[in-house]
Structure formats: structure tokens, C-alpha cells
Amino acid sequence: MEKALIDQVEHLMAKAIFAAAEFQQFDQKSTDRVVESVYKAALNARIQLAKMAAEETGMGVWQHKVWKNVIGTQLVYESIKNEKTVGFISDNPVTGITEIAQPLGPVFAVTPVTNPTSTAIYKILIALKTRNPIIVSAHRGAAKSTAEAVRICYEAALEAGAPEDCVQIIPPGSREFTHMVMSHPQVALILATGGTGLVKAAYSSGNPAIGVGPGNVPVFIDESADIEFAVRNIISSKTFDNGTICASEQSIVVVEKIEALVKEEFEKQHCYFLTPDEIKKVEQIAVTDDGKSMNPAVVGQSVAVIAQKAGISVPEGTKILMAKLNGVGVGYPLSHEILAPILAFYSAKDQASAINLCLDLNYLGGIGHSAGIYANDEHVIMQFSQLINAGRIVVNTPTSQGAVGGMFNNLDPSLTLGCGTGGKNITTENITARHLINVQRVCRRRLNHKFVDADEATYFNENMTETDLFNAYHKNH
Amino acid sequence: MLKAEFKEDKKTLTLGFAGHIDTILSTQYEQELKEALAKTPGFTEDQPLDLDLILDLKDVTYIASSFIRICVYAAKQVPKGRFTIVNSNPMIKKTFKIVGMDDLLQVS
Predict the structure, then answer these.
(1) Rounded distance between C-alpha atoms, residue B88 and residue B55, angstroms
(2) What is this model's ipTM?
(3) Domains of chain A
(4) Per-domain boundaries in chain B
(5) Tell me: the pLDDT tens digits for A42-80?
(6) Which among A15, A22, A187, A438 is the top mutation candidate for probing chain B, defined by the most B β-carbons within 10 Å of its own β-carbon?
(7) Quick one: which of A276, A267, A383 has its CA closest to A318?
(8) In chain A, which residues have their Cβ closer than 8 Å to the Cβ of B23?
(9) A157: contact with B, CB 8 A cutoff
């Protein structure tokens, strides 16, 4: 391995560990001062960074990227600003347990091309809030805008007295460099937001990692739903930043009984149902040759661009391309996740078949991520929610904004959505500051009298069965 | 303000630090440390000083990472094993521990 590269990685890590050592001396007040300073600077830069990201990546809509930056700064800040993340964070005199928050150490944060600046800012905020230095690795397609977000945050942190090198960024484009940092013994945690390959590399690095799984979000519109409302919300979500959020709707499932009504509503709200021939043409440009993976060339593109690439003509002002499909998986490329304004549409004979279809879609590469349901029948909401394998089941809510949290519900605002073991992740939660601390528990003596009072001889008597031991344990209690 | 005490008979130079050593104070101390070393009898640019160098952190409540770098620089000015840091409070001791320098700098 090239010595210069090793030296570069070692230098980066030495700076990070020095910053970690200094940072652990901060109290809550000094920590919060740093976080507030970064939040203000990043929020002030929301428009400039959004424009840079949209221009550099050629994806999405800059106005929507402004909103994403607002989510990553203002909503994240508001949700964490009063959290105790330093020193004593809880004390329970009854249990005798006192909890102490300790920082983890250097956090290595990988950020995606789809939400570059917002993810970088959000990760910096939660890392600094927990006194962890952070090293950001930008997607090569968003290197400049991510670097600018990092620069703005770092300068604001320093102004508020943060340790030198508490925020660093690695040079763009070197996969080897990224992997060397990932597996460096002094990295405390990897926060991996990106594709499956990246997340797998993070989990295989030997360091603790919090990753995200891929999505393939099914949305069930039940017959009890307010159809106009459901369609309006779905459109606002699927068109948000041209569908780049991994929690955006991928398939709409309805029962036959309301199919015509839903279809009519989508058309009324400027969505276009593709003909079978047009579906074939869109498939060819939206999915790569393996028929399973989205083509990066359509990610975050507008309907107009996608239609042009596919060689089809759609009415001006079309918001989403709708593809009525009869199956899931092999032979149906548009049933896979595509982060663009293309939606698969399914009709099922009844509620049970509709939920079954949602399960098929859910298990087609999106286990543990997110799902949506529009219904006014609590029974069907709970039935759907118990069966679907998703970290977030958002109800009567646009899935993009709903899963990200903080706008339509009380989920933690986050740009890294845990997908549980189904997505090969450790948690289904929205990742936030509380995931970046080691909680130490001071355990004061509180005797378990059931155990202490039980007759010791009983346990050493081979004739005693588990029933005898049960009785011995609970006797007189 | 750095307190420097040179004991010729015991061949020791003790440098006393105090306060919340942030990046600004650390820069000031760096200058003062270099001046104190330069004033020490026997100092040359290219040879280690033949003495025990002791950094006394008795009244230090916080150290910036730049101060750790100064300690590493200071340790290089005397032969191996003749540099020590004394009277560090547990928080400061832990700071050196995290960067893995507590053995090298003989922090107590």
C-alpha cells in the first residue's frame, strides 16, 4: 500500500483523536454553544448550499433542497437542543441507577449524492452535540457542495470554541482512502448513509457502524381513505426533490373497488398513466440491465427529462409517471425502488390481497425501511402495520417527509433512517444524537430480595425441579 | 504566565502551567516554553538538554489539543525517559490517555 496514503490517513486520524481528547472535557453548556453556532451558520447557508448541490449533482429541485437543509439544521437542532448529552443525564433513586453520557470518539460519516449537504449538516450537528469529532466522506458526485457545507459548519464550530479538527472532510474520489479510514482502529463509529455496497463495507470494517438499508416503499390506499387527500399527499412526497428521498413512495396499492376513483384523482392532479408500450420504454431507461437496480441517470430527474430520455410524449406539467403493473419482481422492473417521479400502481381484488401485494413489494429490496397507509379505519391500519416489515409505517402522511420526521409526526427528524435487521441494521430508529453516546450506568446497591432470601440449599439439591425453584424464588413475596 | 524553575544541582527544569489552556493560551505558553528552554544553561538548537524536564499541571483545568502537541515537542528536547508531566487532574490525565500519549509523556 502506498506510504503517502497511509501517512495521510494516519495524520487525519491523529487530528481526530486529538480533537476527541479535547472535546471530552467540554461541559453541556460549552457543547451546546458550539451546536447552536453551527446550526445558525448552516441555516443561514441553506439556499446557497441547496443551489450548489442541485447544480453539482444535476439531481432534484434546489427549492426542495432548501427544505432538506432546513430539516437537517432547524428541525434537527430543535429536536436535540434541550437533550442532555454530556455527563449525568438521568438519575433514578428508586432503581439506584444514574446514567452518564460519554462521547464515542471520532465518527466517520459517509454522505450520499441524493441529500448531500443536508445529511452532512445533520451528522455534524448530532456528532458535535455528543462531543464527537466527525470526519465526513462526501459522495464524489457531490464533493464540492458537501465540502462547502463542512467548511461552513467547521468555521462556526471553531468560532464557538470547538476543538481544532473537530470537523474534517476526506479528499474526494478515493475509495481506498475511504476504506482505510473506515477500518481504522481509532474510528469509534461509522455513520453510513448510502447504497447497499457502502453500508455493507461499513459493517464489514470491524468498527461499529450505523447504516441504512435500501427502501422500496409500498403505500396502501384503503377504501376508507380520503382519496383526494391521499393522492395530494402522495404527489407532494413523490415529487419532493424529484423523488430522491429513500422513503419516497415507490408503489401505490388499491382495492379494485376504488381503483377507478384513485386513478381519476391522480389524473386530475396531473399524473400520467403510461400505456403498456410506454411502460416498456420507461423500464429501459429507469432500470439497469439486471432489471433490479435503478439507473443513476434517472435519479432525481424531472418527468420532462425522463420522458425525453424514454422517447415518450406526456402532457406538459405532468408531475408523476404512473405505471399500472400486474406483478412484482422478475419481469416488472418498475416494481423496484426508483428514486425519481415514477410510481408503480397496483389494483387488488380485496383488502387481504392488497396487503399481500404490499408485502411482496416490501420484501422486494425494502425490508425494514418505510411503508405508508391511507385509511380511516383503525383496524386496517393496525392489521397492515403488524404485517409489514418497516421501521416506519406512516399513516395518512407523505412518506418522504413523514419518515424523515419532525414535520408530520413526532419521529426524530433525521436523514439516516435505521431499517432494523431486515435492512441489516442494528436499529429501526431514526438516527439522532442519542445514538452517538456511550451511556455508562452507575449502579448503586439495591438488593433483589427474592434472590437473596431464597434458600441456597434448594438450588444445590438435585431433586429440586424448576417448579420448586420457582416457588423458592417467589416465596413470601 | 509560565513559571520556570531551574535547579542546577539536580539538573531539573520545572515548568508550571495554570488555568484553562485553550488554543489561545496554548499559543502563548508555547512561546514561553520555547523561551524558557532557550534560556536554560547548556541549550543548543540541535542537542537534547542534559536535564530532567518536568511539566507541572497542578492548576490546569483544561487543555486544548494544541497543548498536547506542545508537550510532545517539549519531550523531544530532553533525552528519552527524562520528561514527565506531574500533578495532572484526572480529567487531564484522561485527555492524555485518549490520545495514547500518557505513557510516552509519563503523565501522573
Answers:
(1) 9
(2) 0.93
(3) 3-212+431-438 (3.40.605.10), 217-412 (3.40.309.10)
(4) 3-98
(5) 999 999 999 999 999 999 999 999 999 999 999 999 999
(6) A22
(7) A267
(8) 164
(9) no
- Candidate from A19, A105, A161 with C-beta closest to B65: A19
Q: Which amino acid is at A95?
A: T
Q: How far apart are CA A407 and CA A427, in angstroms?
A: 22
- Which residues of A participate in catalysis according to the annotation? 246
Instruction: Look at residues A441, A467, A472 and name the one whose alpha carbon lies nearest to residue A457.
Output: A472
pTM, rounded to two decimals? 0.95
How near does any CA of chain A get to the CA of B8, in Å? Answer: 35
E strand segments, A401-474: 437-443
**Residue A1 pLDDT class (50, 70, 90 cuts):** low
Euclidean distance between CA atoms A374 and A389, whole angstroms: 17
Q: Does B24 touch chain A (CB under 8 A)?
A: no
Chain B contact probe: residue of A12, A15, A25, A164 with most B CBs at under 10 A: A25
Residue-wise pLDDT for A384-412, tens only, equals: 999 999 999 999 999 999 999 999 999 99
Residue type for position A34: V
Q: Which CATH architecture has domain B3-98?
A: 2-Layer Sandwich (3.30)
Name A345's bridge partners: A252, A324
Tell me what percent of the residues of chain A surpass a pLDDT of 70: 100
All cell numbers assigned to B93: 490525565
Question: Which among A21, A105, A161 has CB closest to B65?
Answer: A21
Contact A138, A118 (CB under 8 A): no
